[in-house]
């Protein structure tokens, strides 16, 4: 998807919500387990209920790989459903890949060509030649982990070498990669305070911001420090939306949660951009 199209979607829906499809058979409503493909049926119901309130969906690949071939099939069906019924939705494969060049090339083919995702999350640790294969696809994005939402982020990402924290080195160095305009970055909502300095290095790049909802990050703080003239944010919530109810009304409850976040986003956008 062209970035202009994503920005237009955000503006027309007054939403920069990404719904994370972290679909877990231990958490979905019991009545769905009787279906032939419970994961797909759950995703389809969630998509049908939430698509007016969000602009993106982010299946986390672990939740599909965990079920082997059946899980991959559910993922493929979910992507086919999204691409056919909701082609305006931005789709992110949360796979956190990255390897030597020829291997990254195959990962890029898997997610961009075969599965037709718009973006994939990438671990930057192996450097330039592990990232650039993902940047050769027009209108696709590689989303580099910069400062993640979890506690372990402090093990390495905030450590300083040569006067600069590692996550800042990731931001600075990757700007010189070929086709770096196709990069986005992950910054956890739980690290919103860091966004001020992050925006000094990457004033315009889109950020994927997970960690509101179940992990306790604040949408208001994220907006305060992270929003750009094009909004520049995709804020993800997975469990907080997916598992708002585990009863038969799960899709309605998920829609209510998504609508609540969308309303908050609309207020934040209104504060900054007016009508
Ligand atoms: O790359 C990610 O999406 C990601 C990065 C990060 O720093 N923290 C983080 O939670 N995530 C993912 O975002 C989702 C968060 O899920 P909830 O905490 O249930 O909203 C999960 O799929 C995580 O793997």
From TrEMBL:
HAMAP family: OMPdecase_type2. GO terms for molecular function: orotidine-5'-phosphate decarboxylase activity. Keywords: Decarboxylase, Lyase, Pyrimidine biosynthesis. This is Orotidine 5'-phosphate decarboxylase. Pathway: Pyrimidine metabolism; UMP biosynthesis via de novo pathway; UMP from orotate: step 2/2. It catalyses: orotidine 5'-phosphate + H(+) = UMP + CO2. It is an enzyme of class 4 (lyase). The lineage of its organism: Bacteria, Pseudomonadati, Bacteroidota, Flavobacteriia, Flavobacteriales. Residues 16-254 form the Orotidine 5'-phosphate decarboxylase domain. InterPro entries: Aldolase_TIM, OMPdecase_type-2, OMPdeCOase_dom, RibuloseP-bd_barrel. Belongs to the OMP decarboxylase family. Type 2 subfamily. The active site is at 96 (proton donor). Its EC number is 4.1.1.23.
